[in-house]
Write a structure and sequence with these properties.
The complex is a heterodimer of chains A (112) and B (113).
Chain A (H helix, E strand, L loop, with lengths): L3 E2 L4 E5 L4 E7 L4 E9 L6 E7 L4 E3 L3 E6 L4 E6 L8 E9 L6 E2 L3 E6 L1
Parallel strand pairs in A: 2-11
Antiparallel strand pairs in A: 1-3, 3-8, 4-5, 4-9, 6-7, 7-8, 9-10, 9-11
Chain B lengths: L4 E3 L2 E4 L5 E6 L6 E7 L5 E8 L2 E4 L8 E4 L6 E5 L8 E8 L7 E2 L3 E5 L1
Parallel strand pairs in B: 2-11
Antiparallel strand pairs in B: 1-3, 3-8, 4-5, 4-9, 5-6, 7-8, 9-10, 9-11
Classes of the chains: A mainly beta (112), B mainly beta (113).
Chain lengths: 112, 113
């Protein structure tokens, strides 16, 4: 069946360090991938996306890497800040639909 | 431009009652998705609607759940005869067109007692 999974449920990093959050997906038909940040009591907030014709995309302090060979997605956050503390979800969208399939999430904790 | 609005933010219902959750998409957005989130889990797709049309309801339970997105007014997710297992956060997302970024609302947290 379709599934998107994460390797680490909780990631603790020190402020200023870089964070890497990983995600595995299983649907070969997915061609659009998104990372969302969700703070407690709020809805998911878009961070960055990538389409399957790319393997890397950079935003402000964030980079998403896509490895289609092993169906792996990662989110890198540079110089992690306390405000980055949240649960991060990867999501995939199969070709020609907008339906998002979410992973279970990784909680990022940033310590001073 | 106001974001996606959802109300109520918190809803408490006794078993057997009905729950109505409302979602007002962003201005200019004609596509709405509903998702359900259990604690410590990711969001699960429920239904995709365009104005006056249900496009994909493959994630909706066959009974007790229904959704609509009328020509005028918000999208409504309706749960009849609620049970404790319906307790969850329900999020809607809107987007202007196909394959665009989805903008999420703040969610409605439903508690069934």
């Amino acid at each position: 069946g379709e599934s998107v999974g994460l390797h680490l449920p909780t990631l603790s990093v020190q402020e200023g360090d870089n964070s890497i959050i990983n995600c595995a997906y299983s649907n070969s038909a997915s061609d659009y991938f998104i990372w969302y940040k969700q703070e407690s009591g709020k809805g998911p907030q878009f961070i960055i996306d990538i389409r399957s014709n790319m393997d890397k995309r950079q935003g402000q302090r964030v980079t998403v890497l896509l490895n289609k060979t092993v169906k792996h997605l990662s989110l890198q956050i540079a110089a992690t800040q306390p405000g980055d503390s949240a649960v991060y979800f990867c999501a995939e969208s199969p070709y020609n639909t907008d339906k998002l399939i979410f992973g279970t999430g990784t909680r990022l904790q940033v310590f001073p | 431009n106001a974001g996606v609005m959802q109300n109520p933010r918190h809803l408490v219902r006794r078993r057997g009652q009905e729950a109505r959750l409302r979602c007002s998409p962003m201005k200019g957005h004609s596509h709405v998705y509903w998702y359900r989130q259990l604690p410590e889990e990711g969001l699960k797709f429920m239904v995709y609607l365009q104005k006056e049309n249900i496009i994909d309801e493959s994630g909706m339970p066959k009974e007790r759940f229904s959704a609509e997105f009328p020509k005028e007014g918000p999208s409504i997710l309706r749960i009849q005869q609620v049970v404790r297992g319906d307790s969850a956060a329900y999020f809607c997302a809107s987007l202007p067109g196909l394959r665009d970024e989805q903008y999420f609302g703040p969610g409605t947290r439903l508690t069934v007692t």
